[in-house]
Amino acid sequence: MTKHYALDLDASIAELKSNAQTGLTAEEATRRLGEYGANELQEAPRQPAWIRFLRQFTDLIVIVLIAAAVVSAIAHGLRDAIAIGVIVILNGVLGFVQEERAERALAALKRLASPQARVIRDGRHLEIESREVVPGDIVEIDTGDFIPADVRVIEAANLRIEEAALTGESIPVAKDPALVLDEKTQTADRRNMAHMGTTVAYGRGRALVVATGMQTEVGRIAGLLQRPGMKGTPLQKRLAGVGKLLIWVTLGICAFIFALGILRGADLVEQFMIAVALAVAAIPEGLPAVVTIALAIGVQRMVRRHVLIRKLPSVETLGCVSVICTDKTGTLTQNAMTVRRLFVDGGVCEVTGGGYGFEGEILRDGKSAEQGPTMRRFFEIGALCNNAKIGISPETGANSALGDPTEAALLVAAHKGGANYEELAKSLPRVDEIPFDSDRKAMSVIVSAAADAGGERLLYTKGAPDVIAALCA
Q1: Based on CB atoms within 10 Å of each CB, which residue in 9, 70, 119, 439 is the most buried?
Q2: Is 211 within 8 Å of 149 (Cβ atoms)?
Q3: pTM given for the model
Q4: Is the dihedral of CA 458, 459, 465, 471 positive or negative?
Q5: Burial class (CB in 10 A: 0-12, 13-18, 19+), 72
Q6: Is 365 noted as a catalytic residue in this protein?
Q7: In this structure, are residues 433 and 381 in contact, taking their beta carbons and an 8 Å threshold?
């Protein structure tokens, strides 16, 4: 497979027989879709429903119960056998129904999450389902967009990609299309690439699709996850152990009772029936049902906390966890930046509220802070020297950040201070921008104050404290 991060732009585009300006033709895109397949992660084929149902009866103790039911039917008639059979079938149906409900819920979530992609084909800008993207497509990406496939960046305007889902890097990574990297460069260091499943945190760009579906980095991980895992949970292993112990103990006792009866001169058939009855009585028919019901109750409690459990034993496995290793950003924390304190006019102000919600106020000494010209200008700069947006999350209905989290936090703080971004952008329209970079450690925008200052233009800058302080009188 070609390593496009180690090729220059022209070579990468030529390798995939594409065009950076006009993209693929519609006919070629259709042909490649047939050749490479849909741009989606493949799942292991699901077993038929009847096999999934029969799988509920593979635990050793359930097999022992089935054997006991058969022997009981032969020895004592159908009454005891039916009672055992009902328990076994109820246990299987309960587990099967729970797994099917979880599978349907997961399938519905996948349909809701079907993303779109903006591509260029025949020189026209189109919006298509991301599953229809093919290698060689030219895609346009902007702040907040999902990257639909593995792509080689060919144009970037202050483009930064949030790659935490793939590499664990919590800070958005700046992309540079001019880079040509060594073939041994690791995924996290490929600054001329963007990968499927990551998101654009900042800026915009254009990119060449180089891999789709299972050929992407995420697809490679998905393939590894489909390999066979651990055989049985701790509880299943213990139940299997109990089943084996019951079998040997029961057979031993039955053999002893049978032999003792024969030695005492009892009837052979009658003594055999006594031994079988003892074996049936010794097996706890209710154990599998009790375990299944307990796990099902656990599943329902987790559903109320918005957690989907695909298989019942997963509840028990989770209960056996003693150590959790996790990256805190977005898991133990809300993955949301919030401005808490401001240093303005020679004093410190507290900012109430959390996350990206607009609820909150600016306090000084526990009281609502009076806003003089300096504080108003402070919030003005925070709102205008900013490329983030505050949107509404479709999942929660709460405010969410589109763009750099730090810039979104400044935007929210400005709103709490009375600086409405939309109104400011109309009265002080942006004329130009000097993007943030690691050398300058600052971002600047030029705004036109023509509406209230006779054509005057202002340069608003934000950045590292030492850099900004060095520029101040």
Answers
A1: 119
A2: yes
A3: 0.55
A4: negative
A5: buried
A6: no
A7: no
